[in-house]
Write a structure and sequence with these properties.
alpha/beta, two-stranded antiparallel ribbon, nine-stranded mixed beta sheet, transport, single chain, mitochondrion, 24% strand, 284 residues, Rossmann fold, ETF_a/b_N
């Protein structure tokens, strides 16, 4: 009997349902936030994270001639996780359609506010610890988390760093290139920095956040969309993970930026100085 393939890498990819990037953002009439009664889709940076996890699996298959070519028999498993109302299942199904093996939905009420980054990081940490405790030995343990560097709705850009800190794992942020050495358990990441690129080498387990230039996400085909409906999705609540989603911050008011007004022309420096004085602008 042929032995089952050895699982070399188990990747968790958190994905978020956010207002679609093509939608013009408007503040709601109550000024408590933005109008969310619009088109939503997967956070673009998370799409890149899903794509990279799939590419890691494809490279693993191509570099092992003895390994089966089927993703289901790959030594790399991919689990997508989302937090949100029932509608968040849409982005989870999208991740499953493009190649994730299974999903996790941490459900909240339709009217509940999305949890803050620290609560998200604590939820992911709790699920990883629960999964790794269930796995016992090395087989089946989550040893890599790949997520977008930020969500385009709140632009916090801190969830990955918080998660790495809570877990005590290595971290590589703003990744524009990821290389996994399965034999040594090392991951080499090229990071986007102001001056160009920085290469860092981490040992598994690791948390990686993705930047725009890492890859170009693929589209889900119709057959794979249909197959995704049969893939397993674990449903949990914050209480199941022992995490409190009570907000620590209070939003007092949300307003749109002031309308831009047109400029004017002056005939001389003296007129410019006079107008500046009229506006209450004086030299320091």
């Amino acid at each position: 009997m042929r032995p089952s393939p050895r699982r070399l890498l188990n990747i968790l990819v958190p994905v978020k349902r956010a207002v679609d990037y093509s939608v013009k953002i408007r503040v709601n009439p109550a000024q408590t936030g933005v109008d969310t009664n619009v088109k939503h889709s997967m956070n673009p940076f998370d799409e890149i994270a899903v794509e990279e996890s799939i590419r890691i699996r494809e490279r693993s298959l191509s570099s092992s001639p003895s390994s089966p070519s089927s993703p289901s028999s790959s030594p790399v498993t991919i689990t997508a996780l989302t937090i949100g109302p029932p509608k968040a299942l849409d982005v989870l199904r999208t991740a499953l359609a493009v190649g994730a093996d299974s999903g996790v939905h941490i459900a909240i009420g339709e009217k509940e506010a999305m949890p803050e980054p620290l609560a998200v990081a604590k939820s992911i940490k709790a699920w990883i610890e629960k999964q790794n405790e269930k796995a016992g030995g090395k087989e089946g343990r989550v040893d890599c988390v790949i997520l977008g560097k930020q969500a385009i709705d709140d632009d916090s850009g801190v969830t990955g760093q918080m998660l790495a800190g809570l877990l005590g794992w290595s971290q590589a942020t703003f990744a524009s290139k990821v290389e996994v050495d399965e034999a040594s358990g090392e991951v080499t990441v090229t990071r986007e920095i102001d001056g160009g690129g920085m290469q860092v080498r981490c040992r598994l387990p690791v948390v990686i956040t993705t930047d725009l230039r890492l890859n170009e996400p693929r589209y889900a085909s119709l057959p794979n969309i249909m197959k995704a409906k049969k893939k397993p999705v674990e449903k949990l609540t914050p209480a199941d993970l022992g995490v409190d989603f009570t907000p620590q911050l209070e939003v007092v008011r949300v307003t749109e930026p002031p309308k831009r007004v047109g400029g004017g022309k002056v005939e001389s420096v003296e007129e410019l100085v006079a107008k500046l004085k009229e506006a209450g602008i004086t030299a320091a």
